Amino acid sequence: MPLIETSAGLLAVWALAGYLLGSIPFGMIVARLMGLGNLREIGSGNIGATNVLRTGNKKAAALTLLFDAGKGAVIVLLARAMAAEDAAQLAGLAAFLGHCFPVWLKFKGGKGVATYFGLMIALSPLVGLIAGTLWLVTAAVSRYSSLAALVAAGWAPIVVIGLTGGQLFLLTILLAIVIYIRHAANIGRLRRGNETKIGQK
Question: How many other CB atoms are there within 10 angstroms of residue 132's CB atom?
Answer without folding.
Answer: 16
